Amino acid sequence: MTAIDWNRECQIIKKIGEGTFASVYICKRKSNGQKVVMKSISLSDCSFLLSTVQREYSIFSQVRHARLIECFGFYQCHKSWNFILEYAPNGTLGDKIHGLQRAGSDAAMSQNEILDIFTDILVGVKYLHFRSIIHRDLKPDNILFDKDGRAKIVDFGISKIYEQMHNNNGDLHEMTKIGTPFYMAPEILNHETYGFKCDVWSLGVMFFEMCELRHPFGEKGTLDLFDLSLPFKVPQIDTKKRRFHPAMNKICEMMIVREPDKRVDLHQVVNHHLIRNKFCTVFFEK
């Protein structure tokens, strides 16, 4: 983190997003005209968010990778905490999926495009796991596209360093408030012990959604995942209609497994024959 006075340096251009606890703005740096993003979190009515802000700041200060959105700075102003982030001008994966949904039944991503995006995400998650960080909120809206159309991961508000993961008794309650259950692994939703494989589940859900442009569990979402007595079957990608390799289904089946001890780890996903070469190319990029 630099010693720049970001409060004076940033000129807000426009608001581009607003959630329950945060607002997001495109800003311009006064010194050089560079576009950046300001994520502003209000702590006035939500004191429990303080630990979330501190955690996100801690994670950002420990990581730097081409497949992660970079944090340039952080400052407190009145009752808000503000992150200054890299600007990614080409929207989110969620935007891309919703745009294709609106375009009609014939709209789809190609297999190569899906694997390219997914590999970028895998490389970012692999780096986080190497640093003992579990993201815990991987979803299409947290995948941004930079000026070159490359995918980058953002939002470390509920990420956790593995060794510290179970030290906070309020951790799961906090995640319920600010996380996204539709993409969270069953073991998290069931308040069970979990580890790095919870990110693998989220990756599987996103992979299916890129292929079929819908959530794998439809309107029911994740409700049935709570009840382990109910039968569980991974929805199938229509590989024939999409003109995909049949093994695209195998990738989903590896990751969307309800029991974490039967779910593959990230290393096994990376070594799938449709992914391995792409992963090596992206992983060793300068």
UniProtKB/TrEMBL annotation:
Alphabetic keyword roster: ATP-binding, Kinase, Nucleotide-binding, Serine/threonine-protein kinase, Transferase
InterPro entries: Kinase-like_dom_sf (IPR011009), NEK_Ser/Thr_kinase_NIMA (IPR051131), Prot_kinase_dom (IPR000719), Protein_kinase_ATP_BS (IPR017441), Ser/Thr_kinase_AS (IPR008271)
Pfam family, one: Pkinase
Domain Protein kinase, first and last residues per copy: 10-275
Membership in a protein family: Belongs to the protein kinase superfamily. NEK Ser/Thr protein kinase family. NIMA subfamily.
Entry annotated with the keyword Phosphoprotein: no
Catalytic activity, EC: 2.7.11.1
Protein name: non-specific serine/threonine protein kinase
Binding residues for ATP: K39
